[in-house]
Write a structure and sequence with these properties.
globular
């Protein structure tokens, strides 16, 4: 069962009916049963076994940690052991080959294991820090860990924000039903009409390189940028919409990231829950640790008070971005493309900021204009796309070959001689561009108004005309070919 399948829609409908028909005190139990059934059907019994392991270990471990005195050595030791036990399946299934060992389970990677591991690991750390008491009810802890809408691709959630929503009864809301269904439909449009259509061109270039060198690679990379965003954000729309129907609000994971004017802003808008998790549970604790404080004191003594602050800060950021890259996959193309390259962008940007300000002043560049903002957005998008080359390539070596081809093979004639139709038929290019323009229009409008309330305020004919047009677009233009796999959300493997 997958998020874009008819079986998922039937499963969601059945869950919603039982959820609201039974007495409210049973709602959380309905969600728990639905979550276990969904995960077993989507990931198989092996994946379910790993999920149950994580649930049991963190439930028991958090209870033990909670009994230890706060600040005690025993509490810290129990926490460290629990963190290792929680991460062990992730290491065994995703990263063991990176360290030179053979994988005992072959290519098996349980569905969404990185997402639910972050959820339960954050819970363990919060209990250790005294942010919240340990959950004594195993079934309720299992619901938090395995809440089914977010299992495939997140978002990453925190227990303090979820406990009241998951365990508090919810009354049926027509507004939640309609708004949630609209968002699910919008997610289907982005995934099936845009992402799956662009995937064909991207796969052809990246899988058959070097038959498609130079500008082919650049165009395919830009297509991949939009494919990935439509795939992942479309998944989020389905997840958040399905959850809203149940009266539960999950955190947003995207905020028009391609409008960003810097790499730092981009990561505040892209996969927001992942960035927030690593900052709160890795970067800030590292900066406050006794080891880092000694490092800071040494650095100040060696380089002076002002410059001495930079080395520990940038080193901590290096650890952070290496971890972000590693989270995406245990290979160097992910570590570079989703981690270290972005660390380089941010650090070099900060170091070169004074020079940039002097150049802006010297050339009298008007920084308040729309043209300058557009330049910053395009610059950021270009830098992000360089990282996507590593992300999409099967290896670091292949990524470097692709970048070399982009820089050395000059073949802009493919834009005019119909060569691009080798990647996609003309009608698919037109449909993709029109669909992307629609998403762009909606994204621009989102900066000024709330879209769904604005649509709801229209008259009946206009309102339902919009819904039916979008529904028809999904039915008519969605990709459902023989090779299509509705499960293939790019981020579900993480």
């Amino acid at each position: 069962m997958t998020l874009t399948s008819f079986s998922f829609l039937c499963f969601l409908l059945a869950t919603v009916l039982v959820y609201y028909i039974l007495p409210k005190r049973f709602q959380w139990a309905v969600l728990l049963v639905a979550s276990l059934v969904f995960y077993a059907c989507s990931g198989g019994t092996g994946a379910l076994a790993f999920l149950l392991y994580g649930i049991l270990v963190t439930w028991l471990g958090a209870l033990w940690v909670d009994r230890c005195p706060e600040g005690s050595k025993k509490r810290r030791m129990f926490t460290a052991a629990l963190v290792i036990l929680t991460l062990f399946p992730l290491f065994l299934l995703k990263y063991i080959r990176f360290f030179g060992f053979s994988a005992p389970f072959g290519s098996l990677a349980p569905l969404g294991i990185s997402f639910y591991t972050m959820n339960i690991l954050g819970y363990v750390i919060d209990v250790s820090w005294g942010v919240l008491p340990a959950q004594k009810n195993l079934a309720k802890h299992a619901l938090f860990a395995g809440y089914f809408p977010q299992m495939i691709s997140g978002p990453i959630t925190r227990y303090p924000a979820m406990k009241e929503q998951l365990f508090t009864p919810h009354s049926f809301s027509y507004e939640n039903l309609t708004y949630g269904a609209q968002r699910v439909l919008w997610g289907f449009f982005k995934k099936l009409v845009i992402a799956e259509r662009l995937a064909g061109a991207v796969n052809l270039v990246y899988n058959r390189f070097p038959l498609y060198p130079g500008w082919y690679v650049g165009i395919a990379t830009v297509c991949f940028a939009f494919q990935l965003y439509m795939d992942f954000s479309g998944c989020m729309d389905i997840v958040l919409g399905a959850s809203q129907i149940l009266g539960i609000t999950l955190p947003e994971n995207f905020d028009c990231p391609y409008f960003s004017r810097s790499i730092s802003e981009y990561w505040r808008r892209w996969h927001m829950t992942l960035g927030a998790w690593f900052k709160d549970y890795l970067f800030y604790p590292l900066q406050k640790s006794s080891l880092w404080i000694r490092f800071l004191d040494w650095s100040k003594g060696r380089f002076g008070k002002k410059r001495g602050k930079k080395l520990p800060l940038y080193t901590g950021m290096l650890v952070l971005w290496f971890s972000v890259g590693m989270w995406h996959g245990g290979s160097w193309n992910f570590i570079v493309g989703s981690g270290l390259l972005h660390w380089f962008y941010i650090v070099s940007g900060e170091l070169l900021a004074p020079l940039g300000k002097r150049l802006v002043t010297a050339f009298h560049i008007p920084t308040k204009t729309a043209g300058w903002r557009l330049f910053q957005m395009l610059r950021t998008f270009f830098l992000v796309n360089l990282g996507f080359v590593f992300f999409r390539a099967p290896s670091l070596k292949r990524a470097l070959s692709l970048l070399e081809s982009m820089g050395t093979v000059w073949n802009p004639q493919i834009l005019f001689d119909h060569s691009l139709f080798l990647l996609m038929p003309a009608q698919d290019w037109v449909l993709s561009l029109l669909s992307l323009l629609l998403v762009l229009l909606i994204s621009v409008c989102k900066q000024k108004i709330k879209i769904r309330p604005a649509i709801a305020a229209q008259n009946l004919v206009c309102r339902w005309g919009i819904y039916l047009l979008l529904f028809a677009a999904v039915l008519l233009f969605g990709c459902y070919g023989g090779d299509y796999d509705a499960a293939s959300f790019i981020y579900q493997k993480f």
